[in-house]
Amino acid sequence: MSIRDWPAAERPREKLLQQGARALTDAELLAIFLRTGVVGCSAVELARRLLAEFGSLRALLEADLPSFSRHLGLGPAKYAQLQAVLEMARRHLAERLKRDSALESPQAVRDYLKAMLRHEPHEVFGCLFLDAKHRVLAFEVLFHGSIDSASVYPRQVVKRALAHNAAALILTHNHPSGVAEPSQADQALTRRLRDALALVDVRVLDHFIVGDGEPLSMAEQGWI
Known about the structure:
This protein has helices at residues 12-19, 26-34, 43-54, 57-61, 65-69, 76-99, 106-117, 154-163, 184-198, and strands spanning 124-130, 136-144, 168-174, 203-210, 216-217. By secondary structure, it is α+β, with helices and mostly antiparallel strands. The chain has 2 domains: 3-73, no CATH class; 88-217, 3-Layer(aba) Sandwich (Cytidine Deaminase, domain 2). A 5-stranded mixed beta sheet has the order 2-1-3-4-5, with helices on both faces. Helix 6 (76-99) runs antiparallel to helix 7 and helix 8 crosses helix 9. The protein is elongated, with a radius of gyration of 21 Å. The mean pLDDT is 87.
């Protein structure tokens, strides 16, 4: 049966317009993105099949072009559309941060850092640079690879903070394993960066570790 033959309240697009995007399942959201199915398979059925093949919506969103294009109903054009959607979401989150104080919008900070780092297959370390009112000036990924005190250089972090004329910053890095628990090396690195930045009057407000769930705030844990 074609989606057009379904009751209006059960069609993904109409359901979204009536109840909002949060009311839709992963398969229904993906079906709206796909727009059409394939012969003998509606868009929703195709979406369910794809989610089963990839294992999750996140795995589909983070797939590279070769992996993405191997699946029925997907190809370079859909991949390009998906990457554009993801980038628009990241920029939307960035705009939210620029309007308000980062300290007054902790969930917006978490959402933005998840969007920027959770898909990375390797560890990366970045900084969210803030002005005196804790509004976002810029976000930069500064280091790639295994993150420890030997691979993150305080001199470079200080240099970028001064380049942005930042009054404060939020440190962040990801754990590709998905477990957002800080190691002793993470805590030692945070103290080292905090002390180095204090010499140029730049405050470290927090250090977020991004895993599979909500990013962990070291400040909320009392480690800063």
